[in-house]
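Z., the sequence and structure:
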Amino acid sequence: MKVILQREVDKLGVPGDLVEVKDGFARNYLIPRGLAAPATKGGAKHAERLRQTHQDRVAKERTEAEALAARLAASPLRITAKAGEEGRLFGSITAADVADELQKATGATVDRKRIRLEEPIRSVGTHEVAVHLHPELDAALTIEVIAE
């Protein structure tokens, strides 16, 4: 069965795509959930409009992500934490802590799952962290950990 996707579906396509799927998948899953509509002769214009709005939305998200990446790269993020005499932290700084500090510093909401920490930060100093802002864009963030 041919359907026109109304929303993005993983491993299938983006809005406006005309895809061929099994009849049961379309009838039982895609169409009832509003993810797709049956392909008709008049659906071609609708599909093109869906595809164009999706491309516009993706382009807008990309420019916003680039602007945020530039702000993140401009200055380091300073986080204060309790530390011992050798520079070891009491506890650690996790991705959730970094996301909270980013929220306070820039006002931009970044999901903690998009912050790529190989392991939690446990020492005072400067650390490099990658932030996944867009499917095509990762930003480098410098975190400066300061002892209280």
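The CA atoms of residues 86 and 103 lie 30 Å apart. The helical segments are 23-30, 43-74, 95-106.

Let me know what you think.
H.
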